[in-house]
Amino acid sequence: MGQGKLDGRVAIVTGAAAGIGQAAAIALAAEGADVTLADVADCGDTARRITELGRRTLAVKCDVSNGAEVRSMVDQTLEAFGRLDCAFNNAGTAGVADQVVHEADEDDWDDVLATNLKGVWLCMKYQLPPMLAQGHGSIVNGASAASMIGIANNGAYIASKHGIIGITKTAALEYAAQGVRVNALCPGPTRTAMMARFLPALPDGVPVDESVYANMVPIGRMADPAEIAHSVVWLCTDDSTYMTGHAFVIDGGLLSR
Ligand SMILES: NC(=O)c1ccc[n+]([C@@H]2O[C@H](COP(=O)([O-])OP(=O)(O)OC[C@H]3O[C@@H](n4cnc5c(N)ncnc54)[C@H](O)[C@@H]3O)[C@@H](O)[C@H]2O)c1
User: Fold this and answer.
1) Is the shortest distance between the CB of 89 and ligand 1 below 6 Å?
2) Start-to-end Cα distance in the chain
3) What CA–CA distance (Å, rounded) separates 125 from 102?
4) Pfam families recorded for this chain (predicted)?
5) What distance in Å separates the CA atoms of residue 143 and residue 90, rounded to the nearest whole number?
6) Residues 207-216: tens digit of each pLDDT
7) Percent of the chain, pLDDT > 90?
């Protein structure tokens, strides 16, 4: 359990069924928050683990690229918990990797941009009004170390993650004087289902081969989702009240090379 720094607060986490979002939702609850879990996938496992921590939770089926569904998800949060203090807009998709720019598929481009970039904007669009009415709030948008650099063969993903930094800085400027902070979180390679897709396949029963990323990262390994979640919690608590408009990189030293 944490130190109760989010006692009485309410959070939304998108993409909370698995990976970084699941770890963040549990970490926010451990710090005292009640948490709405928004995902296209079933969040039952995350909800059960939060209930075990003694916090309230609400699981909502929500496609973050659909404005009506995002609006409903935020409305349901306010009905259930009466307030909204923080949000981790983390839902994302990698799309089809291994496509150079001139061979990329138009449908894949639209899908990746709709989920990763439009989804972050839609979430902020509906989360900001209750935060502004309260006069405080903290939004953390799920970006990537790939927000900072080009990486060959996955242009839609890289473009979407760069775009999140732009909308994050813009929102930070627009709402800083009204008590709402907006930051982006930029993880490096993290051990989740999304990354497993890009790792070399090994025979059945053998853990996926992470050595390609371990060799790339100065710390020598991929991150555990819980290590990313600690930073989400920090950005949501009053320990970070002077932090807004920044892209917070947590990458094991990857971008320092
Ligand atoms: N794993 C990494 O190495 C890494 C690194 C940098 C950034 N990220 C980012 O972190 C975020 C989480 O990734 P992860 O690695 O935990 O992946 P993951 O695949 O384990 O989890 C992603 C979650 O998002 C949900 N989701 C996907 N599309 C959605 C939609 N349209 N609406 C609602 N939910 C949707 C999925 O159902 C899933 O539960 C993503 O935005 C990803 O781009 C991941």
Assistant:
1) no
2) 35
3) 33
4) adh_short_C2
5) 8
6) 667 888 888 8
7) 88
